[in-house]
Design goal:
The complex is a heterodimer of chains A (380) and B (164). Chain A is mostly helical and 380 residues long. Chain A contains 16 helices and no strands. Chain A has one domain: Na+/H+ antiporter like fold (Up-down Bundle). Chain B is of the alpha+beta class. In chain B, 18% of the residues lie in helices and 40% in strands. In chain B, the strands form two sheets. Chain B has a six-stranded antiparallel β-sheet with strand order 6-7-8-11-9-10. The longest helix of chain B has 11 residues. The mean pLDDT of chain B is 83. Classes of the chains: A mainly alpha (380), B alpha+beta (164).
């Protein structure tokens, strides 16, 4: 138990520093974990309590993913979302997979590395757009919907990975049963849910916590992956009052996620049979492949490579989902690779996003006449 | 000219966006972000780099008051509202602190409406608000009262009642 307190205290201090410097805190949590844990000083080790809290962190993260999926409000610009989503998916999945496989990972490991490699951090992207005052850019909408697309792909990846070697038909049947139950409860209990959420005592927050935790426990009992069921619960609740649920679940998510990140770092083993070279190549490719997919998307949607650079600068950082994949399915070398990739890309991403504006203005001035075509009124 | 088209849009994970183009071709975009802040962007016609301002909800409301024409006078405690639909009726709401001289008297005793034409619409005492006080309401020293009326009537209120 003292371990968690030490780790949380270190994270609190680091979070203060990160917020002060306006850079994402996630890489610092992981670094803190690596330094405190197995690969570093060995002060803190994971135990039953910490892994329970880490599980909670993951479950609440996925619940939030579900809350964000409102099926009825998929963008008006479906073809644009699909184009950018497919470019992003293909370019990054293929580069990630081929690179990981060629660098010596097994097929399944390479798939996990590729999925982690593909998935940009939604949290970091959104924060970057808001903090760098980029929301008005036409590319912002593309980027935001790209994150939704990535979340949907992630759910499919989770389903595939969790199916493993089970009887697919039986597995699908169990999942459908779970889904049907959750949706029926949310649909027929809608009035009840809203009446609970409208109260201003402690009931809404207790209810939210119990609903999420009980769903996870129920899923394990039923033999279906709790990850998928919790996402489904979020999606089902999103049909009632997603903002209220976000508000009540946020404190749990915020605290448990910190424990999740720091203990991910603590369990990392850097001394295994994994070479620094392999990790370095993956990190460089992770930055480069988002550049390729970003520029291709920019050209496809706006006929402008510069738009693509904007997309790139805001989607470099990998984060929570990459780590979730590493925790759920990663072997020690995969987890170590993903850990370093998240740290490197999130730090590089936040600096590029912050300073790209001033860089591109200098660049734009020099090359205005032979640069990519701008919109008609896009003249200073 | 057709009325401006206001586009509102829900951006998952970010918040709500409102955007419209003015008659002159400038663009204004407002984002209510999930972090609780409000960002306003303005893009001048012909430019492609918008300028942005980030506001707290209180600051945004203040801006909104200015834009809707609720003119905030130099004295922060007074708001004048003009209703264009009512032949440019200009109504002022002013706050005053009750002096010792009239403490212990009721609204009825002071004959506020008969003497000045103004109405006391709210009183704040010890951080509690009393809306639409009855004529029998007894003032205490230090009460903050909100009085509504035309500016002439309020001047009368200041002369006749506050110094009583």
């Amino acid at each position: 138990m003292e371990g968690i307190i030490i780790a949380l205290f270190v994270c609190l201090v680091l979070a203060l520093v990160a917020k002060y410097l306006t850079i994402p805190a996630i890489p610092f949590y992981i670094i803190a974990g690596v330094v405190l844990g197995h690969a570093g000083l060995g002060i803190v080790a994971s135990d039953q309590i910490s892994s329970f809290f880490s599980d909670m962190g993951l479950i609440f993260l996925l619940f939030f993913v579900g809350l964000g999926l409102k099926v009825d409000k998929i963008s008006e610009n479906q073809s644009e979302v699909l184009t950018s989503g497919m470019i992003d998916l293909n370019v990054n999945m293929i580069i990630g997979f081929v690179a990981a496989y060629l660098l010596g990972f097994s097929l399944v490991e390479a798939l996990i590395v590729a999925a982690a490699f593909y998935s940009s951090s939604t949290a970091m992207t959104v924060t970057s757009l808001i903090e760098n005052r980029k929301l008005m850019m036409r590319e912002s909408e593309t980027i935001i919907w790209l994150m939704v697309f990535e979340d949907l792909v992630l759910i499919i990846v989770l389903a595939i990975l969790s199916a493993g070697n089970e009887n697919l038909l039986l597995f699908a049947g169990e999942i459908l049963f779970g889904l049907a139950l959750i949706y029926a409860l949310a649909h027929y209990g809608k009035e009840f849910l809203i009446s609970i959420l409208d109260r201003d005592d402690e009931l809404p927050i207790i209810f939210t916590f119990v609903a999420v935790v009980a769903t996870a426990a129920f899923a394990l009992e039923l033999g279906v992956p709790d990850t998928l069921m919790v996402i489904a619960l979020g999606a089902a609740f999103a049909t009632t009052d997603p903002d209220a649920f976000e508000q009540h679940a946020r404190p749990f998510k915020d605290v448990f996620m910190v424990i999740f990140f720091v203990f991910f770092g603590i369990t990392i083993n850097l001394s295994g049979n994994i070479s620094v070279g392999v990790i370095a190549i993956i990190c460089l490719l992770a930055i480069a492949s988002k550049l390729i997919s970003g520029v291709l998307t920019g050209i496809a949607l706006y006929g402008s490579a510069k738009s693509g650079l904007e997309i790139w600068t805001n989607t470099i950082g990998r984060g929570e989902f990459s780590i979730a994949l590493a925790v759920l399915y990663g072997s020690p070398p995969v987890a170590a690779t993903i850990a370093v990739m998240v740290i490197v890309t999130s730090l590089v991403g936040s600096f590029v996003a912050k300073y790209y504006g001033s860089l591109s203005r200098g660049f734009g001035r020099r090359s205005r006449h032979h640069g990519p075509p701008h919109r008609v009124h896009a003249v200073h | 000219m057709s009325p401006m088209a206001l586009r509102s849009l829900n951006l998952p994970g970010v918040g709500t966006k409102y955007e419209f183009e003015t008659d002159k071709g400038d663009t204004v975009a407002i984002f209510f972000t999930k972090t609780g802040t409000i960002q306003m962007y303005t893009l001048q016609k012909g430019c492609h780099t918008p300028s942005a301002a980030e506001m707290t909800p209180v600051e945004a409301r203040r801006l909104g008051n200015i834009l809707t024409g609720a003119i905030i006078e130099a004295d922060q405690e007074s708001v004048e509202i003009a209703f264009s639909a009512l032949a440019d009726l200009r109504i002022t709401i002013h706050s005053y602190i009750i002096p010792r001289a009239i403490a212990g008297k009721t609204i009825e005793d002071l004959r506020i409406r008969a003497k000045t034409g103004t109405t006391v619409i709210a009183i704040s005492r010890n951080d509690k608000n009393i809306i639409n006080p009855p004529p029998s309401f007894v003032f205490e020293t230090g009460d903050a009262v909100l009085v509504i009326g035309e500016s002439d009537q309020l001047r009368l209120f200041e002369r006749e009642i506050m110094v009583d």
